Records
---
Amino acid sequence: MSLSKRIALLFKAKASKALDRAEDPRETLDYSYQQQLEMLQKVRRGLADVATSRKRVQLQVQQLAGQADKLQQQAATAMSAGREDLAREALVRRSASQQQLADLAGQEESLRAEQDKLMLASQRLQAKVEAFRVQKETIKARYTAAEAQTRIGEAVSGISEEMSDVGLAMQRAEDKTAQLQARAGAIDELLASGALDDATAPGKDDIQLELERIASTSDVDEQLAALRRGLPAPGHGAALPAPSPPAAIAGTTPPGRTPGPDATSEATS
């Protein structure tokens, strides 16, 4: 497939999808109903035109009929007066009028048939338009109800785009709140442990700091004294066994003993 054909196909697909999203069946039905009303109005205008033409033909028929009667009377009067030529002329004109009357009678009959035909078509079309109007309103009501039900279902289930955006916003707000709470808790712990200085606390001078150090040192000394008092006193505990004396080495005298005469003689010899 060539590039131009692919572009044309893609454009048609996109356009069709866009039209499907933009199309509202209710608007389409209203437009179709309006078109049918316009058609009915055209039929009615045609019927009125035919009826007007037929009425005009009827007036012409009446005029020609009156003229033919008048010519008949003139021919009779001319014959009574011995004017056969005038009577002939009147009869010729009367014959022409009667021919016109016959033609107009045919036209009037044709217009009457056309009028009856348009009348029947107008009645049938009006019935169809009325039936379409009822069906249109029924479909529109059903479509509106289905659309409302769908919107409610989407809103409840969170499928709709609006509710999805609201859900995401709420989730972001909850995450931000949890992050701020964790940060506040960590700062409180650092302040309590002394790792951070409380900027809102009043400043301390060097004398106050020295007094606090002395108090802390005194507290430590008191704890050490309490620990000493808890230890057993010397001599009150169990006696430890004396270590065994080391083996005598030749030429040496254990401490606390005086060498005897045998030992002295042995050393001399």
---
Amino acid sequence: MLCTVELDDELAELEASLRTVRPRPVAPVERHTIDDAVTAAIAGDAGATEQLLIFLRPLVVRYCRAKLGRLPRSFSSPDDVAQEVCVAVFRALPSYQQLGRPFLSFVYGIAAHKIADVHRANTRDKSDPTAEAPDVMSIEDGPEQITLRNELAERTGHLLRILTQRQREILVMRIVMGMSAQETADVIGTTAEAIRVAQHRALNRLRKQLAAA
């Protein structure tokens, strides 16, 4: 993986180049206009590329934090991985049209691959006692707040482990990311109705587990 400094420099260089060559103001990218923005960015429209980056970065950051937030500290934080995903997406952008799938599916496919790399590296590093470091805590957190936060995170992680990988992925996209059923279906490769059914079953399973606890 690229180091954080290299990723920051590459994204900063991309943004700077876009600002210098952007010919006209471009409307912010929204979910319903993303295909038009992608087409324009592939054609070399710097303004569309910049707006696409602005649109994607917070989505990718939230996704990486949701998927990696409970991992022990390693050489990659969720935000580092999000930076790497953004760089990889824009490097691969010219090849996107050849893939024949929704753009968000393309983006999250890259993100899932990077996250899988981090999980594999974390598994390898568990045998190294120096691989994990204590979480950095806010100076405003007192002992009670730290304990409560850790207990809540641990309970949530344990609760989600009763779900299948597919159910967890759907809940992350629908609840954490705020994606529509159709957008989630496009990413996973199914129908919107199947996503709604899977989400309903996953939430019912969580409710039953909470009631039994």
---
Amino acid sequence: MQQVPSTSEVRRERRAAHWAARQARQVQARGDAGLADAWWDRARAICKANPELWNDLALTLENWTSRHDGSHGA
């Protein structure tokens, strides 16, 4: 007998499909910059759902920028 997926599983699958389609559209339209924009959107959505994650995201960005700051003439 086939098990019916739970509501949360269906939502998770729909959300994953939505983000995959969004990333594909962004990449097609803008290349790597579009992909980065899609990830930014996803990160903001996750943080909006759990505000405690903003600090973690900020620390991650601080670390990333400190590694790359000045290396590309920005």
